Amino acid sequence: MNEQRPLRPKARLPRGFKDRDQAELAAEARMLDIIRAVYGSYGFQALETPAFEYTDALGKFLPDQDRPNEGVFSLKDDDGQWLSLRYDLTAPLARYVAENFQNLPKPFRRYQVGTVWRNEKPGPGRFREFTQFDADTVGSASPAADAELLMMFADSLEALGLKRGDYVVKVGSRKLLDGVLEAAKIAKEKRGIVLRAIDKLDRLGADGVRALLGRGRKDESGDYTQGAELSSEQSERVLAFVAPETDGANADSGAVLERFARAVEGSETGAGGIAELREIIRILSITGYGPERVRVDSGIVRGLDYYTGAVYEAQLSFPVMNEAGEIVVFGSVGGGGRYDDLIARFTGQAVPAAGISVGVSRLLAALRARPGAEVFQTEPPIVVLVLDKTGVAECMRLAQQLRAAGFAAEAYVGEAGMKAQLKYADKRGARIAVIEGPDERANGTITLKDLMLGAELAKATENRAQWVKDRPAQQTVARADLIPAIRAILRIQGP
Amino acid sequence: MNEQRPLRPKARLPRGFKDRDQAELAAEARMLDIIRAVYGSYGFQALETPAFEYTDALGKFLPDQDRPNEGVFSLKDDDGQWLSLRYDLTAPLARYVAENFQNLPKPFRRYQVGTVWRNEKPGPGRFREFTQFDADTVGSASPAADAELLMMFADSLEALGLKRGDYVVKVGSRKLLDGVLEAAKIAKEKRGIVLRAIDKLDRLGADGVRALLGRGRKDESGDYTQGAELSSEQSERVLAFVAPETDGANADSGAVLERFARAVEGSETGAGGIAELREIIRILSITGYGPERVRVDSGIVRGLDYYTGAVYEAQLSFPVMNEAGEIVVFGSVGGGGRYDDLIARFTGQAVPAAGISVGVSRLLAALRARPGAEVFQTEPPIVVLVLDKTGVAECMRLAQQLRAAGFAAEAYVGEAGMKAQLKYADKRGARIAVIEGPDERANGTITLKDLMLGAELAKATENRAQWVKDRPAQQTVARADLIPAIRAILRIQGP
Asked: Could B50 and A343 be called an inter-chain contact, meaning their C-beta atoms sit closer than 8 Å?
């Protein structure tokens, strides 16, 4: 273990992590602010828990061992206790609620935005650090709490500029699925394999799932997946529930619920799920969230073991280009549901809870990919070039005047000459370079270079010498006309 | 190592960490947004680096060992490489600049807000996780870069609502101090002990520092601190520089610089520092940042070994109440300076850099303690109580209408009765409870409870029965008058 370290370390980003730049951060900050404002208007309170929790509080020890699960970043503190970085925001919420239960308003409704860490093998698009944004209601089993979360999710997407029809929030219930299995007399021990099969519906289609519910299925690579060995009648009953051919996109939730009620007939669990969904839909119809915004859907499963009642998923329905250049429907940007074991690990007492989680990076990617979402673009800066060192203060005053007029503006504060300064303005993505050299200062004028127009003209003009001579992208204006001249350039370049 | 873990873990916050609530988070978010907007208007770009860096990139291995410094949280990754959580935002900046140097605009100006971690012994007010907010200019030795940072710091404080006179940004130079030591012929090896003595000026006064520069000093507890053993002439020369009796609060920077120039006479380092400060002050006077905003001050030392040129410190001059209930001047809320060894660890090449760092929690505390800073307070919510379960949807619609009118409003989504709901509204800090029970719905009315007025009256009224009977804090209004009635209550209660 006594390896020699090089005297000069290599500057490199750790594997599975990333640096994020202005454009992404500004867009994400704006997106999170908008969602925060909606959640706050519903009276959800912000909460921030620390990055670390005691490993035992996270429930992340390996079974029958005193060593933390490898999936979490863990270390021992000075007291010899294991600490782990949070891998989601739900486990810290559980700790917080259990620790402060007496003093919290009940139900306790909080949102949290924060970084989470996974000590997993990184891959393309799979990072070991990312942002989560959760809102949860703890201490209410009422369908009103579900309805509120669904309304809030829909409101957030609209506050972000999405139109009706661009998105839909789907609601299902784990109790319905359990009810179908119960009504079809499918043995409890087959529940896991059946749920896993249903979860593949999007990818494999009804026939693929049918095979997995029956004998099994061989995939393209020749690998064979063992099936659930249901009878054909059982399989069809499950399929009729999760992959119905009748429900249109704007199907009336009442009619869908009727069909569900028949599918779970004879199951008490199923009947309970139906009653809850009916009440959620009743509230939503009175508050004006019809099927064009929130819709009952049987295909929502959302993971395997965590949820106990209603489950939600927000989906975007507009087309975007994926990394392979294909036009695809964007799909899920978040979801959630009901769960009951939140603080039972600490107190032994089941507390009803429900939450929604925004898929921050996915939603941001969707909004940035959406044409016309200018609100998620950063205004390029104006750079004041400095021709003579003694004039730097005047150049800085000029930048200050531009800022006072509402522009992002800066004077060049480096020590290089004109050519390097123009390169700087280019790397900064500046739209306009402003020049107030000694000549301009003597004449009371300012020279403006339209960098975007200049770049376009340079591309279009074959005779570069001619272009340089004409300098069509450069103009000199009276100092008093500076702000109007800049506004004119930006209008011409702008949308 | 095979200790038994209890089956049910205790829900407890890890030592040295804290949970943060709505009021603090909302105020902090607003403060950071305002500063971000100022920095962005100067063309500084946001950057986010990951929480982890390779330990060697942070330079945090113990001397002559392959084990990370105990002050940082470290763990080994799957590849057997040591990773550490960042303990500041400067070391990650160094890694980022060294890794991406070719592609960055030069100078590279970025700001970063982020959590940092220190694996140190926690204490009162000393946490192991906190937020830093840095802005740095990398790749320019020009005084224009210093001037820009100082302007930006002053602009940020004013954007946060501070008035001229509430704050001052002080600028000094490490070169001046070095120049004084050089001019006073103080041996290089005494530099550290002299700097440490000067750093105690605020706490010990000139006489205390004089003792530490000479033979030494015994403190109240009787502990003796060895002095620097300077001659009395040397001590007085240093003291005349750092603790002058002549400079008033609004002393002209030109006059102060004259005095400094005499103090460092004969020292080349000192002369360089004077020239840089003169240019910074020249720029600031042209851009309108006079001594009431940015002022030359010899007392600014800012740590011991890191800074190489100009140093800055922002101080608040208004009185606040400290934890002991005493009225004190708030003091420093951030600072920074010039440093040259940023990326030398990676490249061997010194790159000039300068930065400012906002003391996030200190500045926030100052703004929250300041009377009249309403912008940092959260608007209390309106709670719609639910008397009958069947009316919950209508109550939620009512909350929705209140949100549409601009209020933070929620309908109670729990399952408890009236008494528990009023307790809930109280714990939520609600100002108004809105009741639309079956009676109200039948009559087209709404009942409003003014919870603040109610609480005050309950305190003032001796005869509780009488108070309950009169219910002066409760009124029933026509549904159409709901919004005006709420506005009337809020105006009455408001500032």
From this structure: no
Tokens 């300041």 sit at which residue?
B370
Domain containing A109 equals 22-51+86-186+230-375
pLDDT digits (tens, 9 = 90+) for B108-152: 999 999 999 999 888 887 899 999 999 999 999 999 999 999 999
Q: Is the pLDDT of residue A124 over 90?
A: no
Residue B449: which CATH number?
3.40.50.800
Residue A156's domain is classified under what CATH number?
3.30.930.10
- The answer to whether residues B153 and B263 belong to one domain is yes
Q: How many domains does chain B have?
A: 3
| A427-A433-A439-A443 Cα dihedral, nearest 10 degrees | -170
User: What is this structure's pTM?
Assistant: 0.89
Positive or negative, the CA dihedral B138, B144, B150, B152 is: negative
For residue A421, what pLDDT is reported? Answer: 95
pLDDT confidence of residue B16 = 94
Structure tokens at A239: 């399929």
Same domain membership, residue A341 and residue A488: no
Question: How many residues in total does chain B contain?
Answer: 495
Q: Which two tokens stand for residue B19?
A: 């949970």
Maximum mean pLDDT: which of A234-248, B71-85, B252-266: B71-85
Query: What was the pLDDT predicted at B245?
Result: 61
Predicted confidence (pLDDT) at residue A470 exceeds the cutoff of 80:
no
How many CB pairs below 8 A link A and B? 299
Predicted confidence band at A1 (pLDDT cuts at 50, 70, 90)?
Answer: very low
How near does any CA of chain A get to the CA of B237, in Å? 34
Q: At which residue do the structure tokens 């519906």 appear?
A: A201
User: Looking at the domain assignment, is residue B26 inside a domain?
Assistant: yes
Asked if residues B53 and B75 have their Cβ atoms less than 8 Å apart, the reply is no
Rounded mean pLDDT of A158-182?
A: 91
**A345 lies in some domain:** yes
Q: Which residue of B has its CA nearest to A99?
A: B11
- ipTM of this predicted complex? 0.88
Instruction: Tell me, yes or no, whether A64 lies in a domain.
Output: no
Instruction: Let me know whether B246 and B313 are in one domain.
Output: yes
Same domain, A363 and A395: no
The arithmetic mean of pLDDT across residues B95-117, rounded, is: 96
φ, ψ of residue A478 to 5 degrees: the values are -65, 145
What is A220-275 written as a DSSP string?
TTS-EEE-----HHHHHHHHHHHS-SS--TT--HHHHHHHHHHHTTT-HHHHHHHH
Same structural domain, A174 and A247: yes
Percent with pLDDT over 70 in chain B: 90
Cβ contacts (< 8 Å) between A45 and chain B: which residues?
Answer: 21-22
Long-range contacts of B124-127 (CB under 8 A, 24+ apart): B126/B16, B127/B16, B127/B17, B127/B18
Let me know if residue A60 belongs to a domain: no
Q: What is the pLDDT of residue B375?
A: 63
Mean of all residue pLDDT scores within chain B: 88
Is the pLDDT reported for residue B471 higher than 60?
Answer: no
Q: Are residues B384 and B457 in the same domain?
A: yes
Contact residues on chain B for A40, CB-CB shorter than 8 A: 26, 408
Mean pLDDT of A382-399: 93
Same domain? For B263 and B357 the reply is yes
Q: In this structure, are A364 and A384 located in the same domain?
A: no
| Listed residues B358, B375, B392: the one ending a domain | B375
Q: Closest chain A residue to B393 measured between Cα atoms? A: A283
Cβ-based contacts of B109 with chain A (< 8 Å)? 410, 413
* Boundary residue ending a domain (A375, A409, A432): A375
- Bridge-based pairing of strands A74-76 and A82-85 is antiparallel
- How do strand A474-478 and strand B474-478 relate by DSSP bridges? unpaired
Give the residue on B whose Cα is nearest the Cα of A96. B11
- Looking at the complex, report in whole angstroms how far the Cα of residue B310 sits from the nearest Cα belonging to chain A: 16
**A347, A98 Cβ separation under 8 angstroms:** yes
CA distance A56 to chain B (A): 6
